[in-house]
Amino acid sequence: MTFYSMMNDSFTMGQQLELLARVVVATLCGVAVGFERTRRLKEAGIRTHCVVACAAALLMIVSKYGFADLALHGQTDFMGSRGADPSRIAAQIVSGIGFLGAGLIFRNGLAVKGLTTAAGVWATAAVGMAVGAGLYFIGLFTVLIIVAMQLILHRRALGGDAYCTQRLVVVFYDSEGVHRALETLLDHMEAQILESDIERREDGPATYRLTVRSRHPLDFQTMNTFLSNHPEIQRFSV
Question: According to the model, what pLDDT value does residue 158 have?
Fold first, then answer.
């Protein structure tokens, strides 16, 4: 009974409701970041970001206020002989969330996927920590920055983000017309060939397997038009 009375004396009902509000606000911040990721069909969406932000806020509250019962008669015992450190739990969130982010990163051929999503989960945890610590303004403002960066930089990609890696497989009956058309298509894509595998058969079609990094990736309409203009092509896949 002494333990529970000490905890109840440490926090009034109003203070506990304020701490609960921090968890709710952090969860809503996770919704904002996760919604943008969900719209782009990414691996971690609203649910993942909500849970990360909510849990980070709760852990931050526990880290910051969970040892309130150690404050005796106005004298904090955090750094005394008991060795309690209120920053210890918060410090582990930063490194611990990295394991979750690592599971979102995977390699597909020469392309690495999931880096931005993993970074977003890590940033969402930081937002949850800020809100959990009571830093509402900076937490909410950070959410606006994260969402704005995602929206703007997806429309106006810069540097390497402006390029896409694709694997093209073209099966066709060998002809100069198709060769010239492929060269024109690659020029239009502003493509750089990273890998190539060419297979030719005397009695059958040739097969080109190309891994390209391009500024203008192929879409279905372009592929369909290309096939219609060149009946020699038996198969064209991306």
Answer: 56
Question: What is the gyration radius of the CA atoms in the chain, in angstroms?
Answer: 27
Contact 166, 217 (CB under 8 A): yes
User: Which pair of structure tokens corresponds to residue 27?
Assistant: 């969860």
Q: What is the mean pLDDT of each run of 10 residues along the chain (238 residues)?
A: 53 79 88 80 76 85 72 51 62 77 68 74 86 84 84 66 78 80 83 83 82 81 81 82
Q: Please give the Cα distance from 24 to 28 (Å, whole number).
A: 6
DSSP string, 47-91: HHHHHHHHHHHHHHHHHHHTTGGG-BTTB--TTSTT---TTHHHH
Q: What is the DSSP string of 76-133?
A: --TTSTT---TTHHHHHHHHHHHHHHHTT-EEETTEEESHHHHHHHHHHHHHHHHHHT
Report the alpha-carbon distance of residue 50 to residue 28 in Å, rounded: 7
